[in-house]
Amino acid sequence: MGRVFNVFKVRDQLVSDFKDYVTGFIHINDERIRGKVDEEFKHGFLWPEPLIQLNPSYEQTKYVDDLVEEGLLHPECSRIFRRDKTPDSLGKPLRLYKHQEEAIRAASSGGNYVLTTGTGSGKSLAFIIPIVDYVLRNGSGKGIQAIIVYPMNALANSQMEELARYLKHGYHEGREPVTFRRYTGQESMKEREEIQENPPDILLTNYVMLELILTRVHERGLVWAGQGLRFLVLDELHTYRGRQGADVAMLVRRVREAFEAPNLQCVGTSATMASEGDFRDQQAQVAEVASLLFGSAVAPDHVIGETLCRVTPERDFGDPEFIEELTQSIMRSESPAPKGYEAFRTDPLSVWIESTLGVRKEETTGRLVRQIPMSITGPKGAGRKLADLTGLDERLCTEAIQNQLAASYDPANAHPQTEAAPFAFKLHQMISRGDTAYASIGSPDERYITLRGQRYVPGEDRSRFLYPLVFCRECGHEYYSVTWVTQTGTGRVCYEPRQFGEMTFDDDERDDISYRPGYLYIDDDKPWTIDDGEVVARVPDNWVEEMATGRRIKRYYQDRVPSLVSLRPDGTVVQSADDDRLVCAFVPSPFQFCPYCGIAHTSARGGEYGKLSTLATEGRSSATTIISLSAVQSLRKCDELDSSTRKLLSFTDNRQDASLQAGHFNDFVQVGLIRSALYISVWQSKSS
Q1: Which of 587, 586, 595 is closest to 567 using CA atoms?
Q2: Is the pLDDT of residue 167 over 50?
Q3: Model's pTM, two decimal places?
């Protein structure tokens, strides 16, 4: 077998690059805190083990031609819906998945229906075929007969390409059997006027634009053209929730009224809408939600789910013979995986992988359902499960699983007819920006330290706060981020945890309580003092003035000098001697100098981020750029992949974020090139 692209190595390199980037910002002086951070990072605190999930295979049933012969579809559908169509070729007959056939039959009944299947399951054909069939039977050019609503314009743009492949390829321009246009707000005024003058059979839009069509006077022509509307499709139904869901639900009702469409057939598609209970329970839940959105009933049996099938044969994992075959498969040394589709499909390790990471039988219904994503490594990972079953070394089992998954993409193991890989799997790597370290008030040798944000020390019955820690960028000394809270009525003073950078109430917002943000400083080697001479010696020079009686702190800076306080573990100030108290210094915000190393910040303006750091100092844009560049560099080195497949696809919430990230990419690369050129020049000059 030739070399095969190994995504697991790319993942390891990406995590390693991101770890180097993140840890480059962290400078921690305290050994216990540094050790805790190193330990958590070593065990993947910010980058847990990746989750693996196989994309299951869908059960196939009849061809489109079969449904035409049955009379369920118009004869022209045989010419329209074909596989691998191009402008110069009609392609091959299209075989449907079972859920697509079920959707077509549900549509023929005239009732509303919802399709809840996974990504890449051909959901769009489940409503495109019934819509085209209706237009063919009713006649094209009779106004808008179907409206398809997408939550994002990108989805509408993608659908345009798919519709063009089916409805334009194989037909002369202007002789297409069914017309379609996009009306999402991206079009020019000329295009909009053309659509209003010649309404298509199928209109692709978004729910905001559909709302405008109903309200704009100059677009009322589209409403008149859609009188008696037959189909209204809501793609990605799960995105319509909360207030937006209520808006869309009311929009559907207004559409039914404005288009005078009492027989309107509503269709919804979604990858996931319900996850609790068995398939019958999920059907009932989805039907209830869809009925509310559509304003008309959706029968539970018209909620169509995916029908999965196995690639590998089903085997009994308790059978000693199978376990022996599986063990031998893991231990083979001649080649990392079998050669050929049939050999790969029937290999015991492939059988075990599909049952563990791919599909399982639902106990109550007997249907095949997707397995919950699982990591390969770790105490609960697939490698440990395989080691427990076979008695082999866990590391050997882990490598065998990874090699088998990678070998699935070897062209020699592809399906002989479809040329598809036996296993198409997803590797989900979560990467967190992180937070910071937290610690209880106490001496450096005794305090509780954690990287998991919480308010109290676990098991202490809320007797001890956990405070966020920040670190001096110069020396790495730690500070507790706190708010000094004073109840003016009772005189009670306490120091409460404050997230770094978090604003506090102004004094005049609460008459009975005053707030002051700042930091607590504790160190046994260099404790703060109340001796005036020592204080003057430790504060920045520009805080001090020369007087006839000696040196003293300027009046302007007197309220910025750290002050000693005695605290209980719950942050309450105590005045009398107490065995449970701890003496520390309160450093007011803004942070202007470090009592430990003496570094001074001349200006009180600007944020604290340039003076203090946390474990999450890196920006989101920078982190995204680092991850993206690491992925691109790994792909460029992968000779196993064709150049056309070495791509990175990134998703963002809006155009503003996309523009910001694109600019960050350009600036980062430009700065990196300049710095690398300077570094090489300096290095070469020193070498010579």
Answers
A1: 586
A2: yes
A3: 0.79
